[in-house]
């Protein structure tokens, strides 16, 4: 079965390790992982700020890359971008595109999954043989929580990681304050929100904070660093890819020691 990896633009630029870890996890499960070179941004930023027509070329690029019938599923390490693909693409294509784009958007969206969704709902497993002997707290991103409704899937995956000390994050469901251009247009509010999030993370005495969206992790990591809190942000996929044989460390990630199937 062929699974295409959608790395997302912010993930590719800021958290490439998450995409590589995702590919490794899928490969270990026996999937043929492919990476369409033409992929780019999902267009969410454009749509969310009112530039829906300008998002059409990006939606078309996504459709061209992933609606290919030889691709069985598309997996992304981002609930935010998966939400945009599933909830925005068809709507925008209907308004500003053509019938072919609408059809392609439907087909691509139907087979696009966030990593925890795919692992539990499609692969049918929450046991990945992961090993991560550290104290960790989890931040559920707004889009994962409310847009695609991940529910307890990420927690189920983390709870089955050997050696992990998973601690509950106070006020976990509160937004980290990023929200794409929200952080630019409402900088003071955004800064206050992420400062609250960082303090809650610090209160858990966790070594790491994890989550499923690179944008949230980037924002949270920046606040943790500015406040010298000594907590590292790491994508959920990197924890799930870490094993006893190939453990994750800050300098040597799991995927760097293991060949893809």
Tell me what you see in this structure:
- The chain has 261 residues and is an alpha/beta fold.
- The protein has two domains: 2-122, Up-down Bundle (Glutathione S-transferase Yfyf (Class Pi), Chain A, domain 2), CATH 1.20.1050; 135-257, Rossmann fold (3-Layer(aba) Sandwich), CATH 3.40.50.
- The chain contains 14 helices and eight strands.
- It has helices at residues 9-14, 16-28, 44-48, 52-66, 79-87, 89-96, 99-110, 115-122, 142-147, 153-159, 182-185, 187-203, 214-226, 236-241, and strands at residues 2-5, 32-34, 73-76, 112-114, 135-138, 165-167, 208-211, 232-235.
- Strands 2-1-3-4 form a four-stranded parallel sheet, sandwiched between helices.
- Strand 7 (208-211), helix 13 (214-226) and strand 8 form a beta-alpha-beta unit.
- Helix 6 packs antiparallel against helix 7 and helix 12 (187-203) crosses helix 13.
- The chain is globular and about 55 Å long.
- The mean pLDDT is 91.
Q: Please write the CATH class name of the largest domain.
A: Alpha Beta
CA radius of gyration is 18 Å
Order of helices and strands: EHHEHHEHHHEHEHHEHHEHEH
User: How many structural domains?
Assistant: 2
Largest sheet: 4 strands, parallel
Summing up helix and strand content along with how strands pair, one would put the structural category as alpha/beta
Low-confidence stretches: none
| Spatial strand arrangement across the major sheet | 2-1-3-4
Q: Roughly what fraction of the amino acids lie in strands?
A: 5-15%
Q: What average pLDDT do the residues reach?
A: 91
Shape from CA axes? globular
CATH fold-level assignment of the largest domain: Rossmann fold
The CATH level-2 architecture of the largest domain is identified as: 3-Layer(aba) Sandwich
Number of helices: 14
What's the N-to-C terminus distance?
Answer: 13 Å
Please count the beta strands (DSSP E, at least 2 residues each).
8
**Into which percent range does the helicity of residues fall?**
40-55%
């Amino acid at each position: 079965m062929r699974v295409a990896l959608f790395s997302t633009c912010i993930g590719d630029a800021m958290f490439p390790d998450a995409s590589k870890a995702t590919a490794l996890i899928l490969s270990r499960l026996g999937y043929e992982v492919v990476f369409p070179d033409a992929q780019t941004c999902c267009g969410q930023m454009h749509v969310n700020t009112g530039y829906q027509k300008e998002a059409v070329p990006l939606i078309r690029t996504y459709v061209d890359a992933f609606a290919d019938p030889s691709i069985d599923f598309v997996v992304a390490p981002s609930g935010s971008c998966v939400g945009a693909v599933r909830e925005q693409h068809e709507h925008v294509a209907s308004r500003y595109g053509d019938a072919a784009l609408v059809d392609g958007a439907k087909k691509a969206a139907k087979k696009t999954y966030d990593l925890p969704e795919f692992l539990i709902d499609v692969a049918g497993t929450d046991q990945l043989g992961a090993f991560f002997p550290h104290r960790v707290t989890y931040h559920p991103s707004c889009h994962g929580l409310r847009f695609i409704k991940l529910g307890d899937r990420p927690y189920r995956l983390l709870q089955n990681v050997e050696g992990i000390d998973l601690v509950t994050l106070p006020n976990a469901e509160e937004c980290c304050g990023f929200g794409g251009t929200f952080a630019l247009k409402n900088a003071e509010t955004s800064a206050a929100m992420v400062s609250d999030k960082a303090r809650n993370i610090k209160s858990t005495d966790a070594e790491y904070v994890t989550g499923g969206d690179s944008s949230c992790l980037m924002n949270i990591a920046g606040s943790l660093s500015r406040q010298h809190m000594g907590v590292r942000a790491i994508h959920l996929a990197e924890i799930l890819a870490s094993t006893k044989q190939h453990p994750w460390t800050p300098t040597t990630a799991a995927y760097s020691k293991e060949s893809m199937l």
